[in-house]
Amino acid sequence: MPVDDFAQPLIQAIDCGVAFAPGSAVLEGVDLAIASGEFVSIVGPSGCGKSTFLRIVAGLVAPSSGEVLVSGSRPEKARRGAAPMAFVFQDPTLLPWRTVADNLQLPGELQSSLPRLAPPDVLALLERVGLKPDDARKRPRELSGGMRMRVSLARAMATNPKLLLLDEPFAALDDVLRQQLNEELARLWQADGWTGLFVTHNVSEAVFLSQRVLVMSSRPGRFVADVRVPFAYPRSFALRGDPEFARVTAEIGHVLREVLR
């Protein structure tokens, strides 16, 4: 879904830069526009600023230069009004002393605008991410890594986000489970229509999930390629064996090799 000249993008970066110390820029000259409802992934070398940019969009880090707008406002203002957002980290960040059901209540406890989830709502959220009703009573230590990540996704869905930010959420999982969660995440996005911004080191994962894949340069990071992904949704496991899937993945891989030279 390209951003045309007449539509205000949901996310807009204008000459954005970040330097945590003088003479040590993490991001520099970052320009970007993402339309409402798009699913976009960011790939790039380690340390190039991918996660830092995601945190700027979330309003957790302030740019040193330029600006990032979400729904035309600063991110911290947008997330309280026009563009409620949720953040899924690489670590599921579940409270270990709480049950799964009680972990799902956390967003409502932190945001007064969100209602408390009724028991049927908790079970419906768990079902959406592939968990069973009995899992609601378990604590994080009783869950596998994949199940904990599913709970993290369910907790994000509980906020009814307009924007979902994901920072390598599946990096610690084995490849089979990772692919399965890719399919489920794509299904959730297609059903709900939120905007997705996904950071990953895995090019195949980025291509499978996304409508566009952005490639970031080495530090100081900036976007050096914007690759359109031509496949329709829903996307199934069979797509990974398609020659065109291999071609797009190789194209992005080639750009990454060039930025590392």
Describe the structure concisely.
It is built from 9 helices and 9 strands. By secondary structure, it is α/β, with parallel strands linked by helices. The two termini are 32 Å apart.
Overall description:
The protein is α/β, with parallel strands linked by helices. It has a domain at 1-75 and 195-261: Rossmann fold (3-Layer(aba) Sandwich), CATH 3.40.50. 34% of the residues lie in helices and 22% in strands. It is built from nine helices and nine strands. The chain has helices at residues 50-58, 75-78, 100-104, 106-110, 119-128, 145-157, 175-192, 203-209, 243-259, and strands at residues 11-21, 24-34, 39-43, 65-70, 85-88, 163-167, 195-199, 212-216, 223-228. The strands form two sheets. A six-stranded mixed sheet has the order 5-6-7-3-8-9, sandwiched between helices. Strands 2-1-4 form a three-stranded antiparallel sheet. The radius of gyration is 18 Å and the shape is globular. Residues 1-6 have low confidence and may be disordered.
